[in-house]
Amino acid sequence: MVRITLFILFISAVLSAQVDSLVLGKFDRLKVDSIEIKGNNITKDYIIIRELTIKKGDVVTGQTVDYNSERIFSLGIFNRVRLFFKQTSEPLSNILVIRVDESWYIYPIPFVRLRDKDIKKSSYGLYIQYKNFRGRNEEIKTKFELGYDPTYYIEYYNPIVIESLDISFLTAITLQKTLNKSEKAEELYGEEFSYNYKKIDFSIGKRLNNFNAIFFNFGFSYINIPKAGKNKILKGDNDINRIFSGGFGYVFDSRDLIQYPESGIYTSSLLTHAGFGLNNISYNIASIDYRQYQKIISGLTLKWRSYYRQTFGGSIPYNDLSYFGYETYVRGYKNNRREGNNLWLNSIELVHPIIKNWNISLDLPLLPKKLTSARVELYFSGFMDTGTVFNNNDKIKIDNFNSGYGFGFTILILPFNAIRCEYAFNEYGRSELIIGTGFSF
Questions:
Q1: Digit-coded pLDDT (tens) for 406-440
Q2: Across-strand partners of 127?
């Protein structure tokens, strides 16, 4: 009888010390006594911990926990991130558990690219991305492109090369035949042409805290054109431009989900000097990018952006001028090419989710589970863009702005990528369909 009684007391004690899971409501509050990380078979703990705005001893709300979950997911190396509390009664303790499902990290992606929709100007190749190398969120990117525009590119990024100082490092090497964007340069040359472009870049960054970072970059470019004697195209004294560059920048980032934010601010500024007087080449490039995201009501998010880029100083090479109609454009004028020293682009969007936080995992033959698992979301948006390109001596005039508006759908397949389909109109009512990958901003 005594043995039975002791056994019952033992079982009761064990059960009383069992852990209960707890998910906080948006405004519920709880103290964090300790933090545990689970599921990170490859990823180092500090890669996850450094993204948290929560530390041991803090009293947090469910809203804060959700925000930190999105910050960790923004690393782009997990298929799923869940934050919840475990409570133990003996001793009484609130354990914040971070459970991650690691993604697939090596992506070989073949591609075909057409210039001017001409099959004779096609390029093809392979893009390879290795994410979370060594479990330290290091990233290696390579691109091999053959055909009309051959390109060889390799990039290495380490977000914490010196852990005690929170120093990051990036280097990239580019060998490329790149299309001239300038109509003025094409007129001088007499026909369409491409630059032969070789470049090496280095960047060293210092993360000041969770939201602020500074960085310094250095580079060297070697640029020439197919036909010698075209000195009006390249600046300086030679038919070859050898350009050293150096600059510094600042980034503030308080966004929740970096890939598709609902709250927070992102702003970056960069000032670069190029040439340093070698071969009479000396000029500057400055840019500032401000983005803000604000939740409104009923799932609506308002976001806006203002991006400004300016080139100034000595004689600016054509390949470093500011352009609309390529990577940067006004929706409604996507293929309208404009060039000048400076550009200014403003955008505003109203976004509403249709599908949100749908975690899927498919069982497909020959494919690993990590590669067939993703977080899928679908958003509808309405947008307006306006922007202009101008030279340093020009006055900014309303008449020189191009403006467009429209609507679109964005499908997020995270952490992999997004597919965007937008229908835009310009101020004259002309419309265009824009289909691509990535995010508007």
A1: 999 999 999 988 999 999 999 999 999 999 888 88
A2: 109, 143
Residue 385, Cα to own-chain centre: how many angstroms? 20
Angstrom CA distances, 279 to 122, 237, 240, 373, 439, stand at 35, 5, 10, 54, 40
Q: From CA 265, how far away is CA 428, in angstroms rounded?
A: 33
Is residue 313 helix, strand or coil?
A: strand
Which residues of the chain are in CATH 3.10.20.310 domains?
A: 2-102
Pull the structure tokens for residue 3.
């043995």
Interior CA angle at 109 toward 320 and 173, to 5°? 35
Closest CA to 410 of 290, 261, 267, 293: 261
Give the list of residues 6+ apart from residue 110 with CB closer than 8 angstroms, or none: 124, 125, 126, 127
pLDDT greater than 90 at residue 390: yes
CA distances from 429 to 66, 142, 403 (A): 42, 41, 11
Separation CA 356–CA 60 (nearest Å): 24
Residue ranges with strand state E in 57-136: 59-61, 78-89, 92-102, 106-115, 118-133
What's the confidence (pLDDT) of residue 91?
79
Sign, CA dihedral 298-300-301-304, equals negative
CATH match of 2-102 with 1.10.3720.10: no
Q: What is the pLDDT of residues 273-314, one digit of tens each?
A: 999 988 888 999 999 999 999 999 888 999 999 999 999 988
Tell if the pTM clears 0.90, that is, is over it. no
For 73, the 3-state DSSP assignment is helix
17-47 pLDDT per residue, tens: 444 566 777 778 899 999 999 999 999 999 9
For 229, phi and psi rounded to 5 degrees?
80, 10
Question: Closest Cα to residue 410, out of 383, 430, 371?
Answer: 383
